[in-house]
């Protein structure tokens, strides 16, 4: 889901490291918001639950969530993961054996964070997937940019086919899936913290299987695009470049959003019966939905970057940047907050809320993450999880106290 392991050091001004870019951190913060919106329903219902809207507000929330959020924001994080790796290669130009060891420890730590996160908080964790796919980046680090881009195109074509298969199977078997999972999952997640952990472990094969099939290949494709963009120097784009291509960015945003909305509505209308759910028109609609995802993701990312560059002194950009610079901590924190809302050890609202209210809870959760991380970054150089990660990667405890983040950007 995101690229927390590939952020640049905040103490870059004291070394030869490439300094952090506020606009890219703001983009990470924005992407974290989308991840929270997408993940919230998986805290509120069983991992295999297929929502069935019963009110107009719930229908609108599903339309917004699936058209503008689902399958889009993890692409941003995946791109930034690949780009972050390119920055690491630019920054660490010393002994390749040392670099290999540091990157291996980074991936190992990311996997450990993900495993703990999946068992204790959220079975749909993506960090383990990122850690596994991250090894491909190391193997591709010297490949020509053209080769990286060609490979990413082929991989994303295969990714769209995998996503279509996963979604169509979920729709075809939604009734039996919901009936089978509702009671069992509810009993576990509405129990104690230990009960929830046991239920989560039981759900892990399904959840991680879904993550691997739905997110794996698209993430790998975006890893390679991000690596190519970092290697070629086309990212991050300058203000002049963004102004020059403003029309293309706006077209990508509008066409991606309209295409995602139209294809999702088509899927929703066609999913009424088993025969229609398996029809050729359903397959075409799903293909359109999957292809529109990177188009809309690109449009949103470039729009946010342009805004962050033009409004770099605004408080909102600084808040998003501080949040994005601690995206790993924010990712873990959002699971703690949502768990306290939906699990039995918290408010116990699992299975009790509709899509519209869940979306409001997601935005409230993101707001809480922004407030907490910005308060933390006023006094500390890294987020708590970033501090642990960097200390393990460098095999030495990093100094954590620092001046306010706003004074360093």
Description:
The protein has 409 residues and is mainly alpha-helical. The protein has one domain (4-408). The protein has helices at residues 22-44, 56-69, 73-91, 96-120, 127-139, 145-172, 174-189, 193-232, 239-244, 246-270, 274-277, 280-310, 315-324, 327-342, 355-377, 384-394. The protein starts with 21 loop residues before the first helix and ends in a 15-residue tail after the last helix. Mean pLDDT is 86; it is low at 5-18 and 404-409.
Give the C-alpha Rg.
21 Å
H/E element order: HHHHHHHHHHHHHHHH
Compute the number of strand runs. 0
Strand-pairing-aware structural class: mainly alpha
* Fraction in beta strands: under 5%
Number of domains: 1
| Poorly predicted sequence stretches spanning 5 or more consecutive residues | 5-18, 404-409
Distance between the termini: 25 Å
The amount of helix comes to: over 70%
Oligomer: single chain
The biggest beta sheet is recorded as: none
Mean of residue pLDDT values = 86
Q: Quick one: overall form?
A: globular
Tally of helical runs: 16
Brief description of this entry?
With 409 residues, the chain is mostly helical. Helix content is 74%, strand content 0%. It has helices at residues 22-44, 56-69, 73-91, 96-120, 127-139, 145-172, 174-189, 193-232, 239-244, 246-270, 274-277, 280-310, 315-324, 327-342, 355-377, 384-394.
């Amino acid at each position: 889901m995101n690229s927390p392991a590939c952020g640049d050091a905040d103490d870059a001004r004291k070394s030869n490291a490439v300094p952090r870019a506020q606009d890219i951190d703001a983009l990470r913060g924005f992407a974290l918001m989308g991840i929270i919106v997408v993940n919230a329903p998986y805290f509120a219902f069983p991992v295999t639950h297929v929502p069935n809207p019963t009110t107009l507000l719930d229908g609108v929330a599903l339309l917004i969530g699936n058209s503008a959020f689902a399958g889009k924001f993890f692409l941003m994080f995946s791109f930034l993961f690949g780009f972050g790796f390119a920055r690491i290669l630019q920054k660490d130009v010393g002994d390749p054996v040392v670099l290999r060891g540091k990157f291996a420890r980074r991936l190992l730590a990311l996997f450990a964070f993900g495993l703990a996160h999946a068992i204790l908080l959220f079975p749909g964790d993506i960090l383990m997937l990122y850690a596994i796919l991250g090894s491909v980046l190391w193997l591709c680090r010297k490949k020509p940019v053209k080769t990286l881009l060609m490979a990413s195109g082929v991989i994303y074509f295969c990714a769209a086919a995998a996503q279509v298969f996963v979604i169509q199977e979920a729709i075809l078997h939604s009734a039996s899936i919901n009936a089978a999972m509702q009671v069992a999952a509810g009993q576990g997640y509405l129990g104690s913290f230990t009960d929830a952990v046991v239920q989560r472990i039981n759900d892990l094969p399904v959840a991680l299987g879904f993550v691997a099939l739905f997110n794996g290949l698209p993430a790998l494709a975006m890893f390679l695009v991000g690596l190519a963009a970092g290697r070629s120097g086309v990212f991050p784009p300058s203000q002049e470049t963004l102004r020059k291509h403003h029309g293309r960015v706006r077209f990508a945003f509008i066409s991606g959003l309209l295409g995602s909305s139209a294809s999702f509505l088509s899927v929703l209308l066609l999913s009424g019966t088993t025969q229609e759910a398996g029809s050729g028109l359903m397959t075409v609609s799903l293909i359109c939905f999957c292809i529109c995802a990177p188009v809309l993701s690109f449009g949103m990312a470039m729009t946010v970057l342009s805004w962050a560059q033009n409004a770099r002194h605004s408080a909102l950009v600084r808040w998003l940047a501080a949040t994005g610079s601690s995206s790993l901590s924010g990712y873990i924190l959002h699971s703690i907050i949502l768990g306290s809302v939906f699990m039995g050890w918290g408010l116990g609202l699992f299975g009790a809320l509709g899509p519209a209210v869940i979306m409001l809870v997601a935005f409230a959760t993101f707001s809480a993450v922004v407030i907490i991380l910005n308060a933390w970054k006023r006094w500390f150089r890294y987020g708590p999880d970033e501090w642990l990660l960097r200390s393990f990667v460098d095999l030495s405890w990093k100094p954590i106290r620092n001046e306010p983040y706003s004074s360093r950007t």
